[in-house]
Amino acid sequence: MKTVITPPTDEAIKRAGEILRGGGLVAIPTETVYGLAANALDETAVKSIYSAKGRPSDNPLIVHISDISQWDALVEFIPENALELAKAYWPGPLTVILKKSPLIPPATSGGLETVAVRFPSNETARRVIDAAGVPLAAPSANLSGKPSPTKARHVFDDLNGKIEMIIDGGDCEVGVESTVITLAGEKPTLLRPGGVTVKMLEDVLGKIEINPAVLNSLENGEEAASPGMKYKHYSPKADIVLVEGSFERFRSILGKNEGAAALCFDGDAERLDGVRCVTIGAEGDFDGQAHRLFDALRRLDEIGAEKVFARLPKTEGVSLAVYNRLIRSAGFRVI
Ligand code: TXA
Ligand code: MG
């Protein structure tokens, strides 16, 4: 199959709608990361997402809508707190999990009784959903296990020849995937941190639970509340280890590991003589770090890094999302 990359012209959006209605796959930009979209209500189309990505079939997909009115049909019931969240942060980088309606095929929900729904703010994403005329299931448009794509070229590198079309909407603004919260259990629980922060969620909901897998690896045999948390993720080829503590300590560890590369903050690079560095933004600039993280992980492969030491991000605000992704790409190794 030839994969076409196109800017979001009216003609391209119309064609994308046709491909999606016909059961095909189209990669689309969103404000978080690029998504690999298919008709969420078409079991066969959804299954082809799993095979293109090499994704385990028990890992459920997020269903994307272009208007809040489309939510109702996808879920059993929308509780008051879910509506309040949606009013505050939709359209935007937030995914809300509720009990699913019978419209959602098992392939979309990974066999679960719940469904994750998101109303993206990216205009191209919304135009494609409108053109398709159906809600779109869209996981990140990377090969399973690789860093999520934040540029059309990342999608092309992973999925060329496997999908019909990539719509190039430029760099994704947020750069990490949406915040995922479940309101299907007893207490609102954060399953994945993202651009909508814990503080922003608590401003609306009051105190929320944070699933332990957000910060730590699951114990052997422990069940994942979000199936995505149990799989190896965001991994470049390089072997990454996170380094806690000061820049001085970071430099001294690099000094003892000849040939290792550094994944570090802007400003660190000039002080690391002779070390190959990939930077992710200034130390205090959490939004900037989120925006650049996945491209930086792919850059490590491009420079042929085999062993990488990375500075440990903070766990506050949007940086919690950076921490959550980076600690997975390092297989939870922190020194
Ligand atoms: O920003 C995003 O959310 C991007 C863009 C394309 O919208 N999409 C995305 O999808 O990140 P994906 O499939 O890469 O991640 C979805 C995550 C997975 O970890 C999955 O396990 C979890 O959400 N998830 C989806 N439905 C769920 C459900 N019903 N219960 C628990 N976790 C769920
Ligand atoms: Mg993903």
The termini sit apart by 45 Å
The residue fraction in helices comes out at: 25-40%
DSSP strand content:
15-25%
Order of helices and strands: EHEEHEHEHEHEHEEEHEEHEEHEH
Structural Rg: 20 Å
Protein structure class: alpha/beta
Global geometry: globular
Strand order of the largest sheet: 1-8-2-3-7-4-6-5-9-10-11
**Low-pLDDT residue spans:** none
Average of the residue pLDDT scores? 95
Tally of strands: 15
Number of helices: 10
What does the model show?
The chain is α/β, with parallel strands linked by helices and 335 residues long. The protein contains 10 helices and 15 strands. The strands form 2 sheets. An 11-stranded mixed beta sheet has the order 1-8-2-3-7-4-6-5-9-10-11, with helices on both faces. Strands 12-15-13-14 form a 4-stranded parallel beta sheet. Helix 1 packs across helix 5 and helix 9 packs parallel to helix 10. The protein is globular, with a radius of gyration of 20 Å. The termini are far apart. It binds threonylcarbamoyladenylate and magnesium ion. The site of threonylcarbamoyladenylate has 27 residues, from strand 5, strand 6 and strand 10.
